[in-house]
Amino acid sequence: MTEEVNGEVGLPGLLKVLDLKPQSDLQFTGDSFTAPVADRVYGGQVLAQAVIACGRTVDPERPPHSLHAYFLRQGSVNLPIDFEVENLHDGHSFSARRVRVLQAGAPILSTTASFQAVQPGYDAQVNMPRNVPPPEAGESHREVLRGTNFPNAHWWGRDAAFEFVQVAPPIILESDPSASDRQMVWVRARGIVPPPPTKDVSEQLWHRALLAFACDQLLLEPAVRRAGMSWLDLRKAGIPFASLDHAMWWHRDLRVDEWLLFVQEAGSSFGGRSMGQARVYTADGSLVASIAQEGMLRIPAQSE
After folding, report:
1. How many CB atoms lie within 10 A of CB 24?
2. For the whole model, what pTM was predicted?
């Protein structure tokens, strides 16, 4: 396995690795695409693949509504990834699945996901913030990274499957003087997402898995912003960071090839761990997902 899937990167490469190969009714195998860090599998990729693996064992009329996952150990892009799904429950309205994600027999991710048949019901939500500048008013990560020597700038800028536009100044190269614990980011796939490749993958399973991929790039950033650091500062200081666990709730239908607004905050940083939370809205204000993630982020304690 090379660092590109048949020479494809960006959105085409991501879609290719999400098209898992079935080995049995409950077992699938997948590959990896270009990773931003050496030979390490990008966590968002394997998370999205786990969503697809679980969803392919459920009635396509039941899209995923929640996910809880633990990242257990680093994966390698040079090895195939095995997905072993366990059918926990199929009820009148809900289905639950657990998947063990392994490489060479060792677990790298453990995920439980729940699915629900589409049903009518009471509709209410936390409203999107008012007067948010549109994505056209901001500077994308691709523009910020163009011509810089930021580590793996080509992956984060040119080859990434998603476009990110910060509402506040980005903290890729420079820190935020206000050290705010909140931020808003516009997110959209770089290209139109084609229909799912197989009949057992619904449109909503496809797009919700892609959202799981995208959000893994963003959740810890408010903690870095609040610490008064930039991502470049972390790289120069050799400060390690990695996702530990991830929880996600999909509330309403969505498309990732349309602009989505992430409204984020840093919930807590303590003991070398930081937590990030986000609400995800469509451009017209529909709340489509809520996300929480804790990660290892070993920023040293600040002296008085």
Report:
1. 8
2. 0.94
